[in-house]
Input
Amino acid sequence: MTAGATTALREARDREDTRRNFYALLWHGAFLALGVSLTQPTTVISAFVADLTGSTVWVGGLSTVLTVAGTLPQLFVARWIEPRPRKMPYLLAAIYLRVASWATLAVLIYLIGASHPRLLAWALVGLLALFYAGGGLGGVPYTDIVGKVIPPNRRGAFFGGQQALAGPLAMGAALLARHILATAPYPDGYALLFGLAAAALLVASAGFWAVREPPRADADGRVRPWREYRSQLARAARRLRTLVGIQLLTGFSLMALPFYVVYAREKLGAPLEAVGWFLLAQVVGGVLSNLAWARLVDRYGSHRMLAACATVSALTPLLAIGMGRLGWVGMLPVLFLGGAVFNGRAVGFNSAVLELAPDAERPTYAALDAVLALPVAFLPLVGGTLLRSWSYPALFLLASAFIGVGAVLAGRWNVERGT
Output
C-alpha cells in the first residue's frame, strides 16, 4: 500500500471515529438531560426541600452543599488522572456512583415517607452530596475526553446540539414529572422521580462505552509532586482570571434561580402541581435556547456568547418582579428564561475553558476553573439567609445588578487572548 493510500485510510478512520464519538456523546447528553429534567435542583429538589423543612435557608444551603461537594475533589482528581493515557474508566466509575446514590435516595424516600421529614431531609443532603461529588469526579475526565474527540470547530455545535437532541426527552420528562407530582401521594411522587432519574443515568452511560478515546501520546502515568503542580496551577489561574470573574458575577443568576419557585409557592399561591409546570418551562427554555447559544459560540466566540447570555440573565430577575403581579402563572416566562440562561452558562463556560486550556492540561484547567468559581456555590445560601429579613423583589434586584456587571465584563473580554 502506498503512503498516500495509507494516509487516506487513516483520515477516513479518524473521520469515522469522530462521527461515532460525536453521536455517542450526544446519546449520553440526551439521557443525562432526561434524568436531570426529572430532578431539577432549582425546581423539583427546591420544592421538595421546602416541603420537608419549610425553610429558605435549607433551600439555599442545600444548593451550596451540592456545589461544594461537586467541586472540592476536582483538583485532587485532576492531578491524579492528568498523566493517565485514558480517562474513560474514571468517568464510568463516577457515573455509576451517581446512579447508586440516586437509586438509594429513591428507596429511602419511599420507605421513610412523610413520617420522619427531618431525617429524610438529612438523608437527602447526604445522598445528593454523594451524587454531586460523583458529578465533580466525572467532570474532570469528561472535559478532557470531549477535548480529545470533538474538534474545536464542532464544540459549539456539540454542546448546543447535545441539549437540543435531548429536547423531546427532557420536555417529556418535565410533563411526566408534572403528572407524577400532581397525582402520586406525597412523598411517593418524589421517590418515583428519583428512581426514574437513576434509570436514565444508567442508560446514558451506554454512550461512553461506545466512545473510542484516543490515548494521550505523551502520558507517562507519573503524578507530579505538589510543588511542581502548584506552579502549573498558578499559570493556569492567571490565564483563567477573567473567565472566573465573569462566572462569579453572573453566578448571581444561580442565587436567584432556586427561589423563583419558592417565591411562587409562598407568595403567589402556586399549588404543588405548578412545580411541574415550572419544570416544563425551565426545560423548554433550555432546549430552545441551545441552538442559538451553539451558533453564537461557533460563529462569534465564547466571549460574545457569554455576554449575550449574561444580558438575558440580568433581565430575568427584573422580569420576575414585574410578572409576579400576575400571580404564579406570571412566573412561567421567568423560569423559561432561567432555563435558557442555565444551559447557556454550560455551553459558554465549557467552550471557553476548552479554548483556553492547552491540550495536555485540560483536566487541570477544568478542575481549577470549578474551584476558583466555588464562591458561586455560597450565593444560594446567602440568598436564603437574606430572605429571612429581605423581600423576594429586593433579592432579585441585587442579583440583577451583579449579573449586569458580569455582562459588561464578558463583552469586553477576548477569550482567544486568555485575558
